[in-house]
Amino acid sequence: MELFNQYSFIGCEASLEESDIVLFGAPYDGTSSFRPGSRFAASRIRIDSYGLETYSPYLDRDLEDRKVHDAGDLSFAFGNRDLVLDNIRSFSKEIMTQGKKPVMIGGEHLVTLPVVEAVYEKYPELVVLHFDAHTDLRNDYMGEKFSHATVIKNIWDFLGDGRIYQFGIRSGLKEEFQWADEGHTFMNKFGYDKLDEAIEKIKDKPVYLTIDLDILDPSIFPGTGTPEPGGIGFADMMKILNKLTALNIVGADVVELAPDYDPTGVSTAVASKIIREVMLIL
User: Fold this and answer.
1) Cα–chain-centroid distance for residue 237?
2) Residue 166's CB: how many other CB atoms inside 10 A?
3) Domain range spanning residue 181?
4) What does the alpha-carbon distance between residue 37 and residue 28 come to, in Å, rounded to a whole number?
5) Between helices 151-159 and 112-122, what is the axis angle to 10°?
């Protein structure tokens, strides 16, 4: 499968063979419903990662002590959504077959679906932790079943009730909130005060982590396709990731940075640091 890699994320220079974690980009934003541009996130994040250190004082862990391979970005035919999803699924399966953990940089949130499908094949007891401003629980968006606005509902279609835990949610259709409240997902609106409760429930399960960066308040993270006021701060995200060290996370993604909407570069710097922490909690 064709990949492109001009730069590697800092500290992710291990070979594929020796690695435990494989980082890759999915530069696709074909179903973005408001502002496109997340296709450019992965390449910008890699460059900005060199403004970081490999060591995290938040976690007291260092990427130099991990074996992470940066495989680069998948190459897509942008006009063919189904082929894009197939390519992501196939590459994720290759990673899983080799006994490694995938960490994907989006791209818009629909790219999460094929990775979760691939991880679920290996871990049928999989649960999903979803951090986001938006419910993403629509059955369709303007008649389209596969969209970044429907991604979590598509995942629910094969995981079912009691397997999806959502945090930071503050935007969606009334019907989406009502559907979640019927027990189909565990939804913590506006924040993460119920995270400890969720961790206790799923601590013995394999976990997939998906972080839509618009969970962050746009006052600190304006560089996203659908900014939603009322989000959490960066310090809150660090607290969340620290709590997640108690879990068996078998795959993860960070999505929805659209770097060109923040010419200061702050949003890209924030995204880079979150990705470093995510790799360190696996």
Assistant:
1) 13
2) 23
3) 3-281
4) 9
5) 20
Q: Do 266 and 219 form a contact (C-beta atoms < 8 A)?
A: no
Surface-to-core class of residue 247, CB atoms within 10 Å of its CB (0-12 exposed, 13-18 middle, 19+ buried)? buried
* Residue 144 vs residues 27, 46, 81, 86, 155: alpha-carbon distances, Å: 20, 32, 12, 17, 15
Q: Which residue has 């945090």 as its token pair? A: 167
Percent of the chain whose predicted confidence (pLDDT) is above 70:
98
Give the CATH number for residue 248: 3.40.800.10
Q: How far is CA 185 from the centre of its chain?
A: 18
* HSE-CB for 75 with a 13 A CA cutoff: 6
- CA distances, 104 to each of 33, 70, 88, 192 (Å): 21, 10, 10, 23
- Number of domains making up the chain: 1
Mean predicted confidence (pLDDT) in 122-140: 95
Q: Which two tokens stand for residue 103?
A: 């960490």
Q: Is 144 helix (H, G, I), strand (E, B) or coil?
A: strand
Question: Is residue 246 scored above 80 in pLDDT?
Answer: yes
- Annotate 85-114 with DSSP letters as a single string: HHHHHHHHHHHHHTT-EEEEEESSGGGHHH
Q: 29 pLDDT exceeds 80?
A: yes
pLDDT band at 34 (very low <50, low <70, confident <90, very high): confident
State the DSSP code for 217: -
- C-alpha span between 252 and 256 (Å, rounded): 14
pTM over 0.90: yes
Tell me which residue has tokens 């070979």.
15
The set of residues, in sequence order, having a beta carbon less than 8 Å from that of 167 and lying 6+ positions away, is: 129, 130, 131, 132, 188, 191, 192, 194, 195, 198, 215, 240
